[in-house]
Amino acid sequence: MTKCRQTAARMVAYGKGILAADESVATMSKRLADAGVEPTAENRRIYRELLATAPGLSESVSGIIFCDETLRQTFSDGTPFAAGVSELGILPGIKVDTGAKPCPGLPGETVTEGLDGLPARLAEYAELGAVFAKWRAVFKITAETPSRGAIRANANALARYAAACQEAGIVPIVEPEVLSDGEHNRGVCRDVTSEVHAALRAELALLNVDLAGIVLKPNMVLEGQGYGRESSPAEVAEITVSVLRAWPDDLAGVAFLSGGQSPERATANLEAMQTYATPWPLTFSFGRALVSPALAAWHGDPELVSAGQQALLERVAANGAAVRQRGELQSV
Ligand code: 13P
Questions:
Q1: Cystine design at 110: which of 100, 134, 158, 331 (Cβ 3.0–4.6 Å)?
Q2: How does pLDDT run across 51-89, given as a tens digit for each residue?
Q3: CA triplet 4, 8, 13: central angle to 5 degrees?
Q4: What is d(CA 264, CA 253) in angstroms, rounded to the nearest whole number?
Q5: Which one of 95, 134, 140, 217 is the catalytic residue?
């Protein structure tokens, strides 16, 4: 367990966040195709190598989350991804859920799957070099959802995953994502996010998960994308931290997902969070808000690898600078 605590502390070390580059083969293929790149395994590999080898990435990135495909691939010089990023001072991680699937009994809702055979898969991923893992549960806000059944089923699965990871000596990133689809205001998102987190804490406790050996990856509390008025960074920070206050002090850290926000908004909101004194660091584990500019700049052109890396590094530096304001900005 001490090993998990040490790894978790490194993942949320001062001034650093986590790069989420673990899109499934299907999602990554779609993003490549949308950028005009042929969605082959080799192009997915080239793109992930571009991200992982951006010069100086480790200054503000503690770890990278990969998917199964990438963890089995190598850099162009033959070094496996996990060994390659480790040499660059970055912790390799692996997404282990198998996706949000229709939840029997709850029409229109999902439960994230991947528990079958998980201990054996974790052992193999540890062999391949992964030191942390990720599992994402998804909740959609509508008039009827998320239901208590979906909240409880997903919270239980997240806890079973987290317990299995800790038994394998792998730090679980625990990701309960309340989506920003919808026309609700941020108060509704706060209430749903609070309910989801409360259920999650209860399930984690029942399975004796050590909070000092997990990283919580929540959504920021935002209005729905169809609401009409964007909450300010100060408003987002205030309401998000109010929800997180329910987590005990021993939680290793919080690393937010970006959830479809523009890269600039995600960074501004993250920076505003730093004004609050919290017992745990508040950092980033963004996917799209870090990699979208890089994919757009590169778009498959071998001549533009360096431009893609610069676009990634720009976002990484902005978010690193935001979290380094912790301590300087804290007033509450
Ligand atoms: P976004 O930051 O693009 O929401 O993705 C983060 C992630 O890892 C989703 O599981």
A1: 100
A2: 999 999 999 999 999 999 999 999 999 999 999 999 999
A3: 150
A4: 22
A5: 217
Integer Cα distance of 14 and 38 in angstroms: 38
- pLDDT tens sequence across 157-196: 999 999 999 999 999 999 999 999 999 999 999 999 999 9
Structure tokens at 102: 């229709």
CA dihedral over 97, 71, 292, 311, signed as positive or negative: positive
Alpha-helical (H) ranges within 68-185 are: 68-71, 81-87, 118-127, 148-167
State the closest ligand 1 atom to the C-alpha of 291, by its place in the atom list counted from 1.
3
Q: Per residue in 234-250, pLDDT tens?
A: 999 999 999 999 999 99
Which tokens sit at 179?
């989506």
CA distance 271 to 265: 10
Q: Determine the distance separating the centroid of ligand 1 and the alpha carbon of 229, expressed in angstroms.
A: 23
Q: Is 217 a catalytic residue?
A: yes
Predicted TM-score of the model (pTM): 0.97
What CATH number should be reported for the domain holding residue 86? 3.20.20.70
Range of the domain at 100: 3-329
For ligand 1, whether the C-beta of 257 sits within 6 Å is yes
Q: Which two tokens stand for residue 176?
A: 């309960």
Cβ–ligand 1 distance for 289 under 6 Å, the answer yes
